[in-house]
Design goal:
The structure holds two protein chains of two kinds. By secondary structure, chain A is an alpha+beta fold. Chain A folds into two domains: 3-120, 2-Layer Sandwich (Alpha-Beta Plaits), CATH 3.30.70.580; 123-222. Chain A is 21% helix and 34% strand. In chain A, strand 2 (49-51) and strand 3 (60-69) form a beta hairpin. Chain B is globular, with a radius of gyration of 24 Å. In chain B, helix 13 runs parallel beside helix 14. In chain B, the strands form six sheets. Chain B has a six-stranded mixed β-sheet with strand order 2-1-3-4-5-6. In chain B, strands 15-16-17-18 form a four-stranded parallel β-sheet. Chain B has helices spanning 5-11, 48-51, 55-66, 80-89, 118-128, 172-185, 191-198, 277-281, 290-304, 322-331, 349-358, 375-381, 387-399, 418-436, 467-483, 498-509, 514-523, 537-546, 551-556, 576-587, 605-609, and strands at 38-44, 70-76, 107-111, 143-147, 163-165, 204-205, 210-215, 218-224, 232-233, 261-264, 266-267, 286-287, 308-312, 339-341, 365-371, 404-411, 443-450, 491-495, 570-571. Classes of the chains: A alpha+beta, B alpha/beta. At the A-B interface, helix 1 of A face helix 1 and helix 9 of B.
């Protein structure tokens, strides 16, 4: 038995599928690609897959992760992970999955992993990129400065039907204006995920004037904070620019 | 002509389940809209989740896209939240494949599988920016067609469609395409000319070329103009082996109903259940060769990644190649952990045996449809299931690991007494008893639907039970359950809303006057009427009143032998005198055997069209044609001469059957 971790993108039209839809897309993709995924026992055997933090329907991502348990150390037919060939097992898995995944879902990295914390427990923060329309750079900078200057950002939200008071400020690890678009600006934020992940749209709506993002993309998920911070699995290409203004 | 996607993606975040509107399914075609191509938009006037799996639509989608002179895309009724956003933003109805405006297509073809979607057809046309009434359309508006089972009586939507197409669509869509391609090349013409040309294609009914007359508040008749045939005949493909579609079944990215591989094993049914319109209008039986079924299953599973396949038909256990297909599917390692489902289980132990063989895992629930609670009643409807068959089936299910049994029944059937109705619960109670021998808490769900008489069935003369009467019958069942809660432990009762049943009845056998009612209800905001949260009987009764019509006259009244029907100028091949005789037999509780294995009753379906039953094997399936009283031992040869599939394709002789 071995486990592999997959990093994938979710972009374009397919961003409108739900977390649950994505899980089903993966189940079919593994069957079609012939990857030897382990199944649970019992009346309704399911593939042993575990997904990381859910991504809101409609948001894009360059940093989605998925852990897969294989039947044993074989990953396809009789091929084992240790096999020496022209193509590495990781590359073969990546290419075979990309051949069957829908447009917009692309595997960018595959690697074997040790058994450890679940993705949801391991991730402490995410970097988000948000495009906001109809706002100039200066106003956006002022909005960001306002957010960062606050000692607390208190919101009331509903949890299991009951109102809960919550301070969002500790979850805002970094925030900055990182660019302009044809119709507005691009904000980048590092938002904490423990014990509950702060959603980028929640932050935009919590401070006056509330902002509405035209598009949101998760750029990174981090398992540790600080200058040497790490992701569950690095993409082979350079990650997104970090937020400029530290909290 | 460009894609509306940039505008749509800005608003899709506002609506529920936006994945309904993105397309991107595996199996989707991105067509090249070249000037020579006739552009079809195939619409299912219900939500994406209900419409996407529709096999008829998917078959036509592929057949059209394979043609050099056609392109086809799909659309589904937008849910009310998106409809509101589209109107607010001034955006039109669009295709899900390339997000092209519906108006930019040459043809809008609606699949009508259920009556209550009719108001959604108007909603889709209006969102598309097309006048809902045919008479108001210009020469530049797309052609609006309907097909599917409800098209056999299209009179309630006749004012809104340019044409209705009867029967199998595989061949006729090609003929319509060729006609339209020529029309475009010639530079077009008036809509009236186009209607005349359409009417020359067999199976195509153009309502504007037929005059409907009324007198004393009743339909007198429908008369063809000189440009149209007197009776429009349905289309039937002679052999399913020629149409192995869909080859590329669409695999949705989001959850839909029947989310699995579906392989149609035969079309048509000769059981002769008298309430069943599908069984009557799709005759004769045309079975797919077992080897082709096997290939479609294996290739489909491999291509789609599904772990479930359904062998679809009106009664799959009656497929004469069933044992071979099942044995081979189960034996095929390449298919992996696959479960096979038979959506229309026959009620007997043999069938459950097959189900057990193929469904190794996930044995949760099995569904049977005895349809009526007494033997007399089942003779009336010609669903000749003996109680022993049902108990044997249920015994077999519980003993092999299934935990829940669901039973489907109809109420409001001709000659039905309360004793017949109560028989439903007695059967359910005995099924629970059978289950207790194997399980501590067996569960039997009884699902009761109100009977709606349909055109081209022996029951087309029957006056539907009133809403009040159906409600009373449901009450009789509920009271009985309450009277003896202990005795009925394990029995759950569910029922279909009798108010919706009444309106289904109105639309099912309605004439052209009903069109104004449909429009009125739509204008009053009545969309998604097949969804209980949107259905409103008040909208319908108010509209009926405004147009001087009543449910008593249109739905609840028994009709006389020679009374004019709204569909008299259309034909499913069935002789009216055959149907009348069958209706008389029904009233005397006389059953009729399956005509695949007995001599012909001359219903007209085979003889009229020079086609005949096509079977995968000359040997009937084990258990024979259960319930018909025929003694066909396992593996025995049938006592009548059958034409097995010829090795080489040759013209099918006329007569036959």
């Amino acid at each position: 038995m071995m486990r592999i971790r997959i990093r994938f993108h979710k972009k374009g039209k397919i961003r409108f599928t739900s977390h649950r839809d994505v899980a089903r897309i993966w189940e079919r993709a593994f069957r079609r690609a012939g990857i030897a995924v382990a199944y649970s026992q019992g009346f309704s055997p399911r593939q042993k897959l575990s997904f990381g933090l859910a991504l809101s329907t409609g948001h894009e991502s360059e940093a989605e992760f998925l852990d897969v348990e294989l039947v044993d150390d074989r990953y396809r037919g009789q091929k084992t992970w240790e096999a020496d060939g022209d193509v590495s097992p990781a590359t073969e898995v990546l290419e075979s999955l990309n051949a069957v995944l829908p447009v917009g879902m692309d595997v960018v990295a595959v690697a074997p992993i040790e058994k450890g914390d679940s993705l949801q427990q391991a991730v402490v923060a995410c970097t988000w990129s948000m495009d906001v329309d109809d706002i100039g750079r200066a106003d956006a900078e002022a909005w960001v400065a306002d957010v960062l200057s606050r000692a607390e950002i208190v919101v009331e939200r509903e949890r299991k039907g009951k109102p809960v008071i919550e301070d969002l400020r500790p979850h805002v690890h970094a925030l900055g204006v990182t660019g302009t678009t044809e119709t507005g600006v691009r904000l980048t934020a590092d938002l904490g995920t423990q014990p509950r992940a702060l959603r980028p749209t929640e932050l935009l709506a919590a401070v006056d004037p509330p902002l509405v993002a035209r598009s949101v993309c998760r750029m990174n998920q981090w398992t540790s904070q600080g200058t040497d911070r790490e992701e569950p699995l690095m993409a082979p290409v350079a990650p997104a620019p970090l937020a400029k203004v530290p909290a | 002509m460009s894609s509306l996607w940039p505008e749509l993606e800005r608003v899709l975040g506002e609506v529920q389940k936006p994945a309904r509107y993105i397309g991107c399914e595996d199996g989707m075609t991105v067509p090249d809209h070249h000037p020579g191509a006739v552009a079809w938009l195939l619409l299912y006037p219900d939500t994406y989740e209900i419409g996407l799996p529709n096999q008829g639509l998917q078959i036509l989608y592929e057949i059209l896209n394979e043609r050099p002179d056609a392109v086809a895309e799909r659309s589904y009724a937008p849910w009310t939240d998106l409809a509101e956003v589209l109107r607010r933003e001034g955006l039109p109805l669009f295709s899900v494949d390339t997000h092209r405006a519906a108006r930019d297509f040459d043809v809008l073809a609606f699949n009508l599988s259920a009556e209550l979607v009719y108001t959604n057809v108007l909603e889709c046309l209006d969102l598309a920016g097309i006048p809902i009434r045919t008479a108001h359309r210009t020469d530049d508006d797309p052609l609006v067609l309907v097909g599917g089972h409800c098209a056999y009586n299209p009179e309630p939507v006749a004012d809104f469609v340019d044409a209705a197409v009867l029967g199998d669509g595989e061949e006729v869509v090609g003929e319509i395409t060729e006609m339209l391609a020529a029309w475009k090349t010639e530079g077009g013409g008036t809509r009236v000319d186009l209607h005349r040309r359409l009417a020359t294609i067999t199976g195509v009914y153009v309502p504007s070329l037929y005059e409907v007359t009324f007198g004393d508040g009743r339909l007198h008749g429908v008369r063809a103009s000189s440009e149209a045939v007197e009776v429009v005949e349905k289309r039937t493909v002679a052999d399913l082996a020629d149409w192995p579609y869909p080859k590329q079944q669409l695999v949705p990215l989001t959850e839909v109903v029947h989310d699995r591989l579906n392989v149609e094993v035969f079309r048509g049914c000769t059981r002769g259940c008298r309430f069943c319109q599908a069984g009557m209008i799709t005759r004769p039986v045309r079975e797919r060769p077992a080897a082709q079924v096997r290939t479609m299953v294996a290739e489909g599973l491999k291509r789609t990644g599904y772990d479930e396949v359904a062998l679809t038909s009106l009664s799959t256990a009656d497929f004469s190649g069933i044992e071979q297909v099942v044995a081979e599917t189960v034996a095929d390692d390449a298919c992996g952990q696959v479960s096979v489902s038979l959506p229309s289980l026959r009620v007997d132990a043999f069938t459950v045996g097959i189900a057990a063989e193929i469904q190794k895992a996930r044995r949760t629930g099995l569904t049977f449809a005895p349809e009526a609670g007494s033997w007399r009643m089942r003779q009336v409807i010609n669903k000749l299931i003996r109680e022993e068959d049902l108990y044997a089936a249920v015994e077999s299910a519980y003993s092999q690991g299934w935990r829940r049994v669901k039973l489907y029944f109809l109420t409001g059937l001709p000659t039905e007494t309360d004793q017949d109705t109560l028989g439903i619960l007695e059967m359910a109670r005995r099924c629970v008893e059978v289950g207790r021998q194997h399980l501590r808490n067996p569960s039997v769900t009884v699902s009761v639907g109100g009977f709606v008489p349909k055109p081209f069935t022996p029951f087309q003369w029957f006056g539907q039970n009133t809403e009040a009467e159906l409600r009373r019958k449901v009450g009789v069942l509920r009271d009985e359950l309450k009277r003896d809660t202990k005795g009925y432990r394990g029995v759950q009762l569910k029922w279909h809303d009798p108010r919706a049943t009444a309106i289904e009845g109105l639309l099912s056998r309605g004439d052209r006057r009903v069109g104004a009612v449909v429009e009125d209800v739509w204008r009053s905001g009545g969309v998604f009427q097949e969804w209980s949260e949107h259905f409103s009987l008040e909208l319908w009764t108010a509209a009926l009143e405004r147009h001087g019509l009543t449910l008593e006259e249109m739905v609840y009244r028994h009709r006389t032998e020679d009374e004019a029907f709204a569909w008299d100028h259309l034909s499913a091949g069935l002789h009216r005198d055959f149907l009348w005789q069958d209706w008389r037999d029904a009233l005397e509780a006389v059953g009729l055997e399956d005509c695949r294995w007995t001599p012909c009753y001359d219903c007209g379906a085979c003889t009229g069209y020079g086609i005949e039953h096509v079977v995968a094997s000359a040997t009937p399936p084990a258990g024979g044609s259960q319930g018909t009283g025929q003694d066909l031992a396992n593996g025995g040869e049938v006592p009548v001469l059958l034409t097995a599939r010829p090795e080489q394709r040759q013209p099918v002789p006329a007569g036959g059957g």
